[in-house]
Write a structure and sequence with these properties.
The structure holds two protein chains of two kinds. By secondary structure, chain A is an all-alpha fold. In chain A, about 75% of the residues lie in helices and about 0% in strands. The radius of gyration of chain A is 21 Å and the shape is globular. Chain A starts with 9 loop residues before the first helix and ends with a helix. By secondary structure, chain B is mostly helical. Chain B contains three helices and no strands. Chain B starts with a helix and ends in a 14-residue tail after the last helix. The model of chain B has no long low-confidence stretch (mean pLDDT about 85). Classes of the chains: A mainly alpha, B mainly alpha.
Chain lengths: ~180, ~100
Amino acid sequence: MTLITPPALLWPVSAACLVAFAAAAGVVIERRAMRAVVALLAHSLAIAALYALLAADLVAVGQVLIYSGAIVVLFLFVVTLLPAGGAEPFSDWRRIAAGAIVGLVLLAALATVISGALSQNALAAAVQVQTTPIGSVAGVGHQFFDAGKLLVPFELTAPLLLVAIIGAVALWRRQGATA
Amino acid sequence: MTAEAVVLLTSAAIFALGATGVLLRRNPVAVLMCVELMLNAANLLLVLGSHVQGNDAGQATALIVLVIAAAEAVVGLGLALVLFHHREPADIDEPRTVRG
């Protein structure tokens, strides 16, 4: 069984993956907060491009609007509010070693699982023949409301956002009182 | 190598990179950005699964994760601003107690 993505899409997908990974590395490595935020923006847009290539149009639009448009810009505002642009103390070698070791172990574990799955061609076996195109607004909305499995998580996002707003305002008010 | 395998490996690499960054960085805002990287990697995997299975459920879950990321960023950035207000430069290891 062949995979769904046409072979012609391999290069665009690989390019978007490369940009996403390089920008993620920039977020982790860059010490100046402003440049890290710009790298996060590039990462977010590359991920949105990947979503579009993977036939997830609605999620791609959501990624651009919510992630690039709202979250990253929020980060940008906070960084401009920080005194001295958010200067960061240098990480000592123990911290760098700990981070590198955990990252490498995690990567090795994930790579082992993935290579096992790829060698058994489990990914190809999991591919279902598509009868209807996925990623439409109606299809995703059906998952939320009609299929019923995601109705409770969907409804719970409303109190989650409300609590986040109240938390942010409470933090700000206390800050204003002590300043 | 298929496009699906490339995306799978990228997702794993970005997740590991984000975990490294959370441990490596001391600036609370940078730590939050690394958490966002990990959330993005998980979301990418959800969308890939949805694509491979031909099922919209993964994409719907990815949208919920997007909302969770937004809520997390709001509260996390509020905490980071408070942290920066109290000491400069802010170090995420410095606070020992929370009061509330």
